[in-house]
Amino acid sequence: MALPQLKSEPVEILARLSALHPKKIDLSLARMERLMAALGHPERRLPPVVHVAGTNGKGSTIAFMRAMLEASGRLVHVYTSPHLVRFNERIRLGAPGRGELVSDTLLADALDRVEAANDGAPITFFEITTAAAFVLFSEHPADVLLLEVGLGGRLDATNVVPSPRTSVITPVSIDHVDFLGATVAAIAAEKAGIIKPRVPVVVGEQQAEALAVIERTAGRLLAPLFVRGEHWHVHEEAGRLVYSDDDGLVDLPRPRLVGPHQIDNAGLAVAALRSLRLSGPAQEEGILAAEWPARLQRLATGALVARAPGGAEVWLDGGHNAAGGAALAHALCGLEERYSRPLVMIVGMLGTKDVSGFLAPFAGLVREAIAVPVPDNPAGLRPEEVVAAAGALGISARVAPDVASAIDGLAAMPMVPPARVLICGSLYLAGSVLEANGTPVT
């Protein structure tokens, strides 16, 4: 059946929807529950759901699960946020071989319908666009839906799903303290809010205070726990990923995604699929195929890369909190051990982030930090504030008006061997870099 002619393009509808609530973030389930009822409860007609919460590693863990499931021939829907370049990146519909980002036509139709059902009532942008995603997922068959929490868990719009097949909690650390609390325990309580009665919970490596909260919540709800270090284990050995649990040992290739933290994320993905009895011989193919843009991504070609000094490496990462900075610095140390290069960071961050916490792991590792604004984002931190935070840590830093200018300026400071350039600090900055560089996100 042909879709009706569209009245608006997705970008126009999205702009309208962003004006339906005065706050960008306002955690609550009441508005979402009202809209789900008006739409006939699409959240009750979804494929089997794997619900993923946590502070860091959610997207990479989902990327590993998707790649392994698709390699086994399954149709996989995926919901992630935020997007990097186009909103369509948030909604991936299952298709034979490899899922596809939602088309403008399907997206605009779903947005039109949820806008009509909402009838102008107050609702946040994330809530109403999540509703559109649920409409699409409910109308297109798939074997699995990998569903990423937007913020927190307990009051996140995705938490209207009544009974996922399993819940996954990646490492919990300090972030979004204005909304989730100022301690790891408080934040863990919000993340653990996705746990449902008797639904298995697969848990990545956690600080003791976070794990205690998760264990108490699971115990109260009689939800079986599968905790790293207790019920499953993963480590790198001789360039391979070695996973083990009570069902046996699995020897897999090292992921293409760079950094020791990706061993952890891949292991969590394997544990989640084994808890669902969805793992199999395609795991090896999937581990090698997994991709996740702006997570220590090497940019080999493109308009921005062409501006870099000859022989320089250009890397991109969207990490933006203290734990993300620590993981990123650890990965850069690994690159340094394999091939030493002077490290230059180009950093842009939001004002809501702990800039000192993010930069601290790089002290003694980075030759120079160049602070830039996050383009077109009023919440961006002034580059001068990034420079001040870097200086307090003993990191030499200066300001550039944008990423292109920062790269151009490297010609005035020749390095031998050529520099390793890391652009980091914000997913919003990372998206603008991918767009300016001409790197597709598919």
Report on this model:
The N terminus is likely disordered. Strand 9 and strand 10 form a beta hairpin. This protein has 15 helices and 17 strands. Helix 7 packs parallel to helix 8. The radius of gyration is 22 Å and the shape is globular. It has an 8-stranded mixed β-sheet, with helices on both faces. The protein has a 6-stranded mixed β-sheet with strand order 12-13-17-14-15-16. It has a 3-stranded antiparallel β-sheet with strand order 9-10-11, with helices on one face. The two termini are 27 Å apart. With 442 residues, it is of the alpha/beta class. The longest helix is centred in the last third of the chain and has 17 residues. It folds into 2 domains: 280 residues, 3-Layer(aba) Sandwich (UDP-N-acetylmuramoyl-L-alanine:D-glutamate ligase), CATH 3.40.1190.10; 141 residues, Protein-Tyrosine Phosphatase, Chain A (Alpha-Beta Complex), CATH 3.90.190.20. Pathway: Cofactor biosynthesis; tetrahydrofolate biosynthesis; 7,8-dihydrofolate from 2-amino-4-hydroxy-6-hydroxymethyl-7,8-dihydropteridine diphosphate and 4-aminobenzoate: step 2/2; Cofactor biosynthesis; tetrahydrofolylpolyglutamate biosynthesis. Belongs to the folylpolyglutamate synthase family. One of its GO terms (molecular function) is dihydrofolate synthase activity. Pfam families: Mur_ligase_C, Mur_ligase_M. Its EC number is 6.3.2.12, 6.3.2.17.
Offer a concise description of the structure.
With 442 residues, the protein is α/β, with parallel strands linked by helices. The protein has 15 helices and 17 strands. Helix 7 packs parallel to helix 8 (208-220).
